[in-house]
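step 3/5: co-fold with zinc ion
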Amino acid sequence: MQDQLIIYNTLSRTKEKFVPINAGMVGLYVCGPTVYSDVHLGNCRTFMSFDLIYRYLLHLNFKVRYVRNITDAGHLEGDRDEGDDKFAKKAKLEQLEPMEIVQKYTLGFHDVMREFNTLPPSIEPTATGHICEQIEMIKIILEKGYAYIKNGTVYFDVEKYNHEFPYGQLTNRKMDELLEGTRELSGQDEKNGRLDFALWIQSKPETLMKWPSPWGWGFPGWHIECSAMSSKYLGDTFDIHGGGMDLQATHHTNEIAQSQACNHKAPVNYWMHTNMLTVNGVRMSKSAGNGFLPGELFTGDHPLLEKGYSPMAVRFFMLQTHYRSTLDFSNEALQASEKGYARLMTSIKTLENLKISATSTSNIKELQKNCYNAMNDDFNSPILIANLFEGARIINSVNDGKETITTADLSALKKIMHDFVFGVMGLRPENTNSSTDKALQGVMKVILEIRKEIKEKKDFAASDRLRDDLNKINITIKDTKDGATWSVQ
Ligand code: AMP
Ligand code: ZN
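step 4/5: write tokens
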């Protein structure tokens, strides 16, 4: 099964068969959050998409070293290597130490990831924990002649690099096209070229987060952390590097340039980029101010939200769209996902009570093949979900006595539903152990007993009314030969 996986590679702009460097250990690196503020739902979409990818690789029995970093230094307000450091600015605002800001938002990020049932990465390295590695890499880039020093700041020389290696491959753009999109250098600019970027930035007297280096006190540029940490843990060339599409043009383009300049090797075989979560067509971002926090979504406490949505309904909503398509937030779509998620969960519960027959009316092997085909085709979760709904339809039909299933097919169907719904999609039943859920189970047991007695007294009008009233609040009663069953739709 491992040899059937196809991945869309941003670098080649085609779907390619996945051939790992070493099947014994697949290297996966994903750019993690910048922890000077809370993650918004857009960030969560990217991390959930890579969680699906990680889970499916594990499901295919690959051993995976999944590295997702924490950016806790070196992020400036402007995108031109100038302006305030975002961590220091937030620290002043909240009257905390910069590392208290880092701790607070890292813990918050972990809480959110747990709510969404994402698996933790194998290694979660931080930029501040790898200053030595970044300095060493910058030294090599300088020695090899692809960088220069101006007043204690080290810049990457994009023009020099571009003479030997194509810069901008990831977005398929040449230097002159890229230059068109940048402003002219002013007299105040230190750098030689408009596309040059800082590897190391000299600190000012008021800079809070700074380290000694061969070029004086300063702090690393943003891009160098990912090059240094990915090569440290995954090697100079590794299998998959991912992040949101907004990282392609600058962050990942510069990562390729730094690693290539340092090691004279392409750092990554498969570049994967997730598309954006949008609100009314506008990308959700910290700067646009249109970002819902996951907590607001769970409670419904936001002007754009009609109500609160559970973490699993939101996860299901995310997975209903392929990771390379944009996903626009809407209450209607979330409410549809809520119902879809509940339908899947109900069918999985029903699976436990299905009756066995001598023959099967459905082709379960075909269903299994279709689930694998969907995921092998660049992790196509919406097609996977369509197949799982077909599984749910079969379950309900067998439960209603309209179709039949053999013992072998039933255990195959259970395996498909459990493996893909829980293992690959990372959904989990919600509230099954909560006291409310237990109370509901108890109440329904009492109601069904009363209804049975009503029916025995042949008061069919009353028993039907009870069934219809429950139906109005989305509780479905089914009368079977062995008594009545109930489910929440
Ligand atoms: P940041 O903390 O801003 O560096 O972002 C962390 C991750 O979230 C990066 O991989 C971004 O590309 C991704 N990201 C940011 N905004 C969105 C969005 N609206 N939709 C999906 N992913 C996003
Ligand atoms: Zn990165």
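step 5/5: annotate
The CA atoms of residues 444 and 486 lie 8 Å apart.
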